[in-house]
Amino acid sequence: TKYGDVSAANLHHLAVRHFPLCMSHLMGTLHSERHLRHGGRQQLGLFLKAIGLPMEEALLFWRSEFAPRTPSDQFDKQYAYNIRHNYGREGKRTDYTAHNCTTIVGFSGGLGDHHGCPYRRLDETSLRAALSRLHCDDGKVEEAVSKARDGHYQLACAAAFEGIHRVPELDVGISAPLQYYAESRRICTE
Ligand code: SF4
């Protein structure tokens, strides 16, 4: 599932085309607010690692997204350790893996937190707007909103996948952000 073109420079491009909403939403929030709280940094950071972003590129990416709100020397003191830690280069040297949907759907967050599954956490207006920005087919937007309303978040995500990629029904459900990404890369090669 790893493609060799994952670098700090093309993450935003990849996000628009291939990331599930839980990740593209974090990318967008990070970019506009120049900050993400811990839960969001973990959810997005471990995913970026899983799709093949090398550690040095991760440091580059987060440092530049946190600027100018966080100057780079402060970034290196406050946040770089955690990124290296996620890559298994600090502390217990555990090689942490990315979260699957069940874990992400279960996250609860406070005001100012943007992690978790957007199909569960966003209100209907925001969800419609977010999917429209990704050029999701209108019928599939409504299907996703209705599935989300019924608590079927992963089915909502699959409907959005179909609507964004203009494909008929997916054979398999969405079980992890990494799987959504791999499927998206597989079917759109441009
Ligand atoms: Fe992400 Fe899974 Fe929610 Fe889709 S269903 S947005 S992949 S957590």
Automatic annotation (TrEMBL):
The chain holds residues 289 to 478 of 533 of the full protein. Belongs to the eukaryotic-type primase large subunit family. DNA primase is the polymerase that synthesizes small RNA primers for the Okazaki fragments made during discontinuous DNA replication. This is DNA primase large subunit. Residues 14-181 form the DNA primase large subunit C-terminal domain.
